[in-house]
Design a protein that fits this description.
Largest sheet: 8 strands, mixed
Protein name: Phytepsin
Low-confidence stretches: 143-166
Radius of gyration: 21 Å
Family: Belongs to the peptidase A1 family.
Pfam families: Asp, SapB_1, SapB_2
CATH architecture of the largest domain: Beta Barrel
Distance between the termini: 27 Å
GO molecular function: aspartic-type endopeptidase activity
Keywords: Aspartyl protease, Disulfide bond, Glycoprotein, Hydrolase, Protease, Zymogen
Strand content: 25-35%
Length: 297
């Protein structure tokens, strides 16, 4: 279209209508934007990787509390082909716990807390770097940029050995527990409270590739969540990040957050799908290699 001179600008823009009763479900405009579908001005951030229109996202907040995971920046993409919001399992677990979503109970996670919780805490307090803690306990060993579980027969009963999958699950659970503990340590929480909190988070770990269910009656009491993009806060209310299917007593409410771990070097990576794009009108500016967001109208 650009080469043929059919569009005025090298941009395309999305408006997604979240009202299921509306006649028009949304609009994609090639070569510009429709001013009827947004309020105020767009705020822009540069594309950091061309392949997926990737950009740098800053801190992520639940309520007014930082989760600490993206303080140093996280890669993110905006994708109309993804229905929900996906992020690393570690952070999605914290979100689902905060909003009361019911994920799959992870035996491995609880095992880590009961068997190794105090040792994890002591190592962090003593100054061991978070990415070295699980390796020091023999739960993971370093293989290039990734941590891989070691042979941990002392944790997993030989006769009921879960094999490599189980060992990797314990390594992953340990690494998640360290992230959660480090975040609480930064907030100057006491050890007993932190171990109790981490154990609760274990219960909220989402099923891999699956959604987490929530009590529809709890929506008014849930916290807002905030994405920081280009130094600007982008807030989603519970009504915006919870998907409601059906009405009345048969209604089912689904958390808009789903775990998806994109491995390095491409990951970790957030995908801001339709849940985000329904709230924020999005401009893909190909000419200037940037993304723009404004409140949808």
């Amino acid at each position: 279209m650009v080469d043929q001179g059919l569009v005025d600008e090298e941009v395309f823009s999305f408006w997604l209508n979240r009202d299921p009763e509306a006649e028009v479900g949304g609009e994609i405009v090639f070569g510009g934007v429709d001013p009827k579908h947004y309020k105020g001005d767009h705020s822009y951030v540069p594309v950091t990787k061309k392949g997926y229109w990737q950009f740098e996202m800053g801190d992520f907040l639940v309520g007014d509390q930082s989760t600490g995971f993206c303080e140093g920046g996280c890669g993110a993409i905006v994708d109309s082909g993804t229905s929900l919001l996906t992020g690393p399992t570690t952070i999605v677990t914290q979100i689902n716990h905060a909003i009361g979503a019911e994920g799959a109970v992870s035996a491995e996670c609880k095992e880590i807390v009961s068997e190794y919780g105090e040792m994890l805490w002591d190592l962090l307090v003593s100054g061991v770097q978070p990415d070295q803690v699980c390796a020091q306990l023999g739960l993971c060993f370093s293989n290039g940029a990734q941590s891989v579980s070691s042979n941990i027969e002392m944790v997993v009963d030989k006769e009921n050995a879960k094999g490599r999958v189980g060992e990797n699950a314990l390594c992953t659970a340990c690494e998640m527990a360290v992230v959660w503990m480090k975040n609480q340590l930064n907030n100057e929480q006491v050890k007993e409270k932190v171990l109790e909190y981490v154990n609760q988070l274990c219960e909220s770990i989402p099923s891999p590739g699956g959604e987490s269910i929530i009590d529809c009656n709890a929506i008014p009491n849930m916290p807002n969540v905030t994405f920081t993009i280009g130094g600007k806060p982008y807030v989603l209310t519970p009504e915006q990040y919870i998907l409601k299917v059906g009405e009345g007593p048969v209604a089912i409410c689904i958390s808009g957050f789903m775990a998806l771990d994109v491995p390095p070097p491409k990951g970790p990576l957030w995908i801001l799908g339709d849940v985000f794009m329904g709230v924020y009108h999005t401009v893909f500016d190909s000419g200037n290699l940037r993304l723009g967001f404004a409140e949808a109208a």
